Amino acid sequence: VAGAPRALGAKSHTVAELGDTDSFGELSLLNDAPRSATVTCMTESSMLVVKRHDFDRFMKAAEQKLLSQKVKTLRGLKQFAVCDDTHCREIAQFFAEHEYAEGDIVDLDSSELVHFIIKGDARLCVRAIAGDESRP
Question: Where is the Cyclic nucleotide-binding domain (predicted)?
């Protein structure tokens, strides 16, 4: 996918901003369900498409495995431990794994992402406010 498609739900509110290397439509094929969103291109876009028959023949097993891995990862996080499988499968499509090296700084000031640590340790630091002596 090149460009910036936007997925819209039934009430036309944005549920995801998509960009290069993102995909859409695979959940309806995996679940044999009707499509639940409309995608509107926000810029001139170029996409690869695959027919359902070919998806089923060549890609369905791999996509199901990837989705199952994402669901397993989500279920391992305390924030998602109570989610049922259906809900986890629905939200798993919005997650992408990012890897960071030791010492990398995750700049939350410019980020619109929420991070869930699936492996490793991180230190969360806040900037001291001038004149605030309550924080070490």
Answer: 1-59
